[in-house]
Amino acid sequence: MPRARTLTPFALSAACVLIGLGGCKGGAPAADASPSPDVAAPEAAAPSTVAPLAAELPAPKPSAKERAGAAFDADNVKEQAEAFREHLAAGRKAVKARRYSGGIEDFEAALKIDPNHPSALAELGWAAFLSGDLDRAERSTQRAIDSSVASDRTRGAVLYNLGRIHEERGDDGAALTAYTRSLRLRDNAVVAGRVAELQGKGAAVEARECDLAERQGAPPSDLCAAFTRGYAGDELLGPPRCDGRDYAADGGARATRIALDLGDDLRVATFGITADFVEGGENGTTYVAALYSDRWYTAALGGEYNPGVGYVGESFQVTSVVADDVVAGGRPEVIVTTVWDHHDGDYGDNVLESGQETVVAVLSVDNGGPRWLGAVKTSVVSELGAMIEGEASAAEERRSERKVELVFHRDSGEYEVKAVAGHEPSAPLGRFKLGEGAALCPPQVNFAG
């Protein structure tokens, strides 16, 4: 199942930016897509006091297909595919012979052709781990986990590799978190054994992926500028850029567009940040911000990875920010809907995968501070076909859509994920207490059981 990358704050090192809350990635809907989620109104709900502000949100970005097409070298694709396969085979042969530096060189050469290929990324990460280069190993392994075309089985296997890296660093909590995520995606006795051993040593699963970062003081008018202040880039990423579409069009000083004004000195905004990789391509993340009079909080919603080479493109878009009382008492909750789409060609198997995911997330913004109450993937559209027409391909052309219906029950503070006739579910079915469901925040939704 593909997932959306996220970036951590730019005040952190580039290595942390790359591994993020769940990696570095995300997407806006293609022009012909229909991203509207299936979200039923709360039971016995009064009309919302704050209406959806879709008209106030930025215009859509270029679609994943448009971004991928801009980087695709159609004239030389056959030669590139052959070179990719040769480098991948040579890298595997070198690692088997314990010539790790040679394997790393070949895997990196393959990734210059197809930079989002999960197997090449994973094998580069493992070769780097075996060579003792833990920084390179972690970066490449996390990118493999975050690849838009990595299957759940592949991601489960690579999460085991990530756990090994964390254990080598002596970070048992991070290792246990990686192993636990791995088991959610695939059952494996070796991984289960690592979980049991770390738990026996007293390690605990980390919950940082659903934390919101707090900043003291009155919120600035330009959230992106304040968020990225002091980060000028490093050996991996250049300086961050703020998305100009996120600013209010009032002709005055630059001020982040406010999506919702809930009164009582509380507002909600979203904003995007992009940075260029030194070796080419760009990575971006979209954040939500809860702005109180004396402090403000931010959390990553998702992101996008556009390397500028290969047949890879992603886009991420916030399509709706709505306030509604889905839990009785207190302030209205904030419901954020996002759409991520991806378009990715596999040069090894001549496969083109594309798709779109819609996530609906609920954020409590009561006076004690914001916290995520739940996130549900309401729709997953997947398409498969040949990248190079007329050439042998491992793909059988198909299109599928998995979806669920999301219903809020205000009287009990629960939400219900219901099956949709004719569709496989895109999220775990059942009735869940808000704040206790299968996933609490957008990054975590990708590891829900």
Describe this entry's structure for a reader.
28% of the residues lie in helices and 28% in strands. It has 10 helices and 14 strands. The protein has helices at residues 14-19, 64-71, 77-96, 100-113, 118-131, 134-146, 152-169, 172-185, 189-200, 223-228; strands at 39-40, 213-216, 241-242, 258-263, 266-276, 282-291, 295-306, 312-324, 333-346, 351-364, 371-386, 398-409, 414-419, 430-433. β5 (266-276) and β6 (282-291) form a beta hairpin. The two termini are 12 Å apart.
The average pLDDT value, as a whole number, equals 86
Distance between the termini: 12 Å
Radius of gyration: 22 Å
Q: Please, how many helices?
A: 10
Counting helices, strands and paired strands, the structural category is alpha+beta
* H and E string: HEHHHHHHHHEHEEEEEEEEEEEE
Low-confidence stretches: 1-55
Helix percentage range: 25-40%
* Percent of residues in β-strands: 25-35%
Sheet having the most strands? 8 strands, mixed
Globally, the shape reads globular
